[in-house]
Amino acid sequence: MVKGIITRACGKVWRNLMYGFTLFLLLMTGLPAGEAHAQNLKFSEDPDAFITELRKLMDNSRNQAYIQSSKGLEAIWNSGLNTTQRQQFISLFRNMAGRGYKPGPALNLVISNLLTVVGQQGDINGFMIALDHAVEQHDQKEMLQALQATQLVLDKKLLYQSNFSKLYLTAGQYRFRYEKPAADAPAGKGSDGWDTPVEDLPVKSAEPLPVLSGLLLDLQNAAFAIVANGDSVSFGPSAGSVALHKGIFVGNGGRFDWRTAGDSSVYVQLADFAFKTATPALKAEKAVIHDSRLKSPVTGTFEYKSVRKPAGRASSGFPRFMSYRNDAVLSGLSEHISYKGGYYLQGHELFSTSLSGEPSEVIVSFQGKPAFKSTSQRFSLSPLKITAELATFTLPMGQDSIYHPGVALNYQDEAGSLHLTRPPKGDFTSLPYIDTYHKMYIWSESARWDFAKGSFQFYMVSGKTEIPLRMESMDFFRKSRLQEMSQEFGFQPLMAAAAYLQQQKKQAFFPDELAKVVKKQPAVVRRMLERLTLEGYFQYNADQDQYSLTRKAVFYIMANVNKADFDNFTLRSVFPSNDNLANASISFKDTLLTIRGVEHFNISDSLRISGKPTDRIVVMGKNRDFTMNGLLQSSNFKFTGRNIKFNYNDFFINMSDMDSITYVPHEKYAKGLGGEVGGNIKYDKAGTFYLSDAKNKSGQQKGVTGSPRIHIPEGVVIHFDQPKRGQWAYPEEVFFSVPELDVGGLDKRDIEFVGEFHSAGILPMIKTALKSMPDTSMGFEHPLPREGIKVYNGKAVVKGPKLFMDYKGLQSEGTLSYLTGQIQADRMVFTKDSLVASGKSARFSEGTLGGVYFPKADLKEFTMKWLPEADSMMLRTQGNAFDFYNGTTKLEGELVLRSKGLFGNGVLKRADSELASDNIQFKKGGFRAGNATLNVNASAQADGVSLLRAKGVDIDFSIDKGIVQLSQNSEGFTSDSSGIELPMANYYTSIGSATWDTKARKITMKSSGEPASFRSLMPEQEGLEFRGTSAVYSVDKKEMTVAGVPFVNSTGLNIVPDKGQVVVDGNGHLAEFKKARIVVDTMGISHRMYNADIKIHSKNSLEGSAIYQYITAGKDTFDIK
Residue 853 — φ and ψ, nearest 5°? Predict the structure, then answer.
């Protein structure tokens, strides 16, 4: 724009020169000789002659403006100017003529400007003196510019005017003055800092104000107005001077407000400043801004430019003010926001930038306490919103904090919400949040805090690819990190820096020094150091331009040679965040960090410590302590449960709420085999499992002797009720009690639980050690004393080498002594209510205990089940056969030993009989059987027909006496399935008792009470049946005699046997009745016969003769045969 103005000015000079040349020709041809000179004009010193010459000169120019000016001067020449003033004017014109001025714009402007000064009653003398000195100093071009500027001021109150802008002098007093040029001063170098990138802003010195000389317009209480680009601003009052030939104002004072940006209450108080009148712009150093949001005014640099307002913007970005330093304290943003830093007001927008380049600080409070702190070189500040494209962030947590060196920040005060995002590019993009409370680095794309919800949340923005949120312990180390640095930079920067510092015995180094050591370009090394500084490996001293190693760098160097302990604790979270839940969140109620979407995580590679939460959630407390549900594995140990608590500092697991702790025995683990044990142990008492020495979390520290150790001061109670035990599971009364558990060295041996085994009466309490068994169960092996051990509250004694417990139960082998039995068992299994055993032999000696007789019995290949509370020991053999009574009697079935004697159930076989019963008791010289079935063999019977069959009877079998007593069972003979059959006689009877005399070879039967039924089993007798009170069956005669028979019914006749006896022969037929009686009832009349000889064939057939006793009407009796 300045160039355009100069070009237009040069054009005017050229036109004036041409006009002067034309006028010169006219004068040469039209004026008398002597009044024009080939080189210069000449004017008379006489006032009257001068005015005449001047009028003639101007009239001859034929320029109406010039003519009018000369007429105006002539009009006031004598009346408006005094003698001195006329002489001053003449002297000025003669001086100008002597310097080659021609009739033209310059002379005309002198006349017209004088007329204006006179008309305005201005300082004529000062104006004339100033012009006279100016002619001496300025060339014609400068003089013309000064006169034109003077005309604008005098005629229009304008310091500048063009088609694009105007500068008005709207108020104040002025006078003209000439200032001699000062000695030249060296030019200063400055910078405004307005458009310099924030990160490159240095503290710069202000450009010195120009020193004015020549024709000056001095101003007092001057007010200015700039009109340009469809807008106008005003400022002042100021005092200063305008160099009219240059169009430069230098002055001080005045006020410039932000009316054009929409707020007239904000203004700067100007100090010394300068500006070009032809440029619609203003800049001032040491300006002091006044803003109601400021606790006190601040000093800085001010600038205004008239530019068109961009479309959609509330202001053009001007005026603008930037403080020199970070000394602005804002109090008008919000009651929750505390701010100190730079002040940069750009139009209507407020930022935190200052020329010092230092970051500003924002502290936001919530519920009366600091919520977070942020620093940035460029905050955007408004009452309800604070944003920054790059800012540090600090969230205080007691003495600790969560910190990030560079995030994009957006705080909404009215909503009480904070949103942080990772910068899209640059060195800060890859940097994590530093959480010193939980001692974790957190790589997260975004973070947010809704103050009302009370939690700070980290989350990843969902996209096409699920990128996990990463967390890493502050003591994390892997050698691969250092190797990756070496590959990237061509050398190992941490090692190189450490070696150099150690060699030089220094704490810090210059970048160029390291560059020489590693033989790299200094710029490359500096850039590397800048990046590694951001990553936390170096610390930079800007004042000294030196770098030093940080704790993190020293830690990596020491860990690389196993001189510092470290871990491999990392977590990855893949979780679909929503408005309420995020990948990770910190609750301000308890400071717990909840991490979601965790599939698996590592703690130590060498120690093989890792976790797998079943709900994919890990809740972390201070210093990496955490709680989880699921599985935590450490080498060959697995910890499963809810609310598993891990203490990082002491490196242990709290065992108070553990579902199970299992481990693979070392022998198997070393071979890469599985087979976990210990799952049956419930840890319901407070205890601790130390995964390793707390000083050896890496598993790489030499000389650290600590090893995995379990310590439960109050001990544990171990039950044997796991479903895997199946039928060998024990109730909770059977348990193993360990008073205190403290076992170390678990990296070399398995856990042994030394304590007491309580078996609820199976055994006395025994002291032994619980350990892992070959079948992966938790059990024990306990040697038995020579005298054996009492079992089931002393009911029996077991002798053998040892007792042992595994998934197959509490077991032993050896001899079980019970009552008269000596049971040699290959395997015995003890349960709460039974003992199960098997073996090759068992012997029961004959004898009497407590008045109870026990017979002798020998068993081979047996199985046994003893129910002590039921007083029942059941034995079976492979062939299910037991021999009794010198081999005369064999039991096929189960032998039952009780304190009341020896019992059996099954089939009892003898040469003469076979008996089946569930309740057989063996006695001395015989046995008893209840509710039995008896089959007595008929000797010498080829067809195998039995002598006797009985069902549902009680039997007392005396082998010694040869007497077998059969009696009616307590339930009685109430169906066809009970009673006695005599197959040889083809008869069944329901008689109450019977005696089989094996020696007398007869069966005697007797009814108890009512006569019993005797029924033929021969079909041809058609169900012939009668009743009797007793009977005798002779084996030898094959004949049964029934006594107490009241009658036998056949063909409807009641045949009354003589003496009440009926004989059944060996073929099952009734013997012929002699002297029997017959009774027939017909139509209510009784008919009687006697001396009957009757042969009964069946129920419906008989033959024989009898005497009928006929009674007449007169009561006379006649016998009819």
Answer: -90, 140
